[in-house]
Specification:
Strand order of the largest sheet: 1-2-3
Helix content: 25-40%
Strand content: 5-15%
Structural class: alpha+beta
Largest sheet: 3 strands, antiparallel
Order of helices and strands: EEHEEEHHHHHH
Distance between the termini: 38 Å
Number of strands: 5
């Protein structure tokens, strides 16, 4: 039997009305009954909430809508900070219902997940975060790296993915996840520049790098890519 603690919980919220939360993935191992053992709960709240969907009035339910909005706000960096000197119901352990700030500016920003305004804010936030990380840390994959020459200039010159050939490679300039310092001024001025860029990051959204190594035929180079990865990146 599969240990249900060894993988992240899967969550599906349908139409701001129904929540399915459990261990099953959308693959044969999870969905065919004689493979992995899975468990899930289906939550259908009977408390209605007036909302919007694609610009039209929509009757959602309280639990599903508030959960989806709270998650979207987390991704967008729209959660209000908690004040430890002013505890509320959200500080309490399981058994005390959480409070949700219906009608707040942050709530209304994510109320309609199909509106053009929401889609624009989602995409802009993902791009701002992605570009900030790229400027400071030079992570890959990144859409600005579309061929091996750009890969060398953007990443390989600063970081080495392995140390199998130490005799022919210079030492890495930086450790993974460290600031690429040569892109910034020296001393305290550089620290301020890094902090200014990092301050533009909010939430957890980043773009999926669909254009990474787009100009290279990496499938032909024999990198052992599976069918999905080959389709996405070539």
């Amino acid at each position: 039997m599969r240990n249900l603690t060894d993988s992240p919980t899967q969550l599906l919220i349908a139409d701001d009305r129904v929540v399915i939360c459990g261990s099953a993935n959308l693959n044969d191992r999870s969905q065919i009954g004689d493979h992995d053992s899975e468990i899930a709960v289906v939550l259908e709240d009977s408390t209605p909430v007036d909302s919007y969907m694609n610009g039209q009035p929509w009757r959602a339910t309280k639990f599903a809508a508030s959960l989806r909005r709270q998650i979207f706000r987390k991704h967008l960096g729209l959660l209000k900070p908690q004040n430890m000197e002013r505890p509320d119901a959200n500080f309490e352990p399981i058994g005390v219902p959480n409070e949700y700030d219906w009608g707040s500016r942050e709530d209304l920003a994510v109320a309609d997940p199909l509106s053009d305004e929401f889609l624009n804010s989602w995409n802009v936030r993902a791009k701002v975060n992605t570009d900030a990380f790229a400027k400071v840390f030079h992570p890959v994959p990144y859409d600005g790296v579309r061929n091996w020459k750009q890969y060398d200039d953007f990443y390989e010159r600063f970081f080495h993915e392995d140390d199998k050939d130490k005799q022919h490679k210079k030492p890495s300039l930086y450790k993974w996840g460290h600031v690429v310092a040569e892109d910034f001024s020296p001393g305290e001025q550089g620290v301020r520049e890094v902090k200014e860029i990092l301050s533009t990051i909010k939430g957890t959204l980043v773009e999926m790098p669909l254009l990474f190594l787009k100009e290279e035929d990496i499938a032909q180079e024999g990198l052992g890519l599976n069918a999905f990865t080959e389709e996405v990146y070539t």
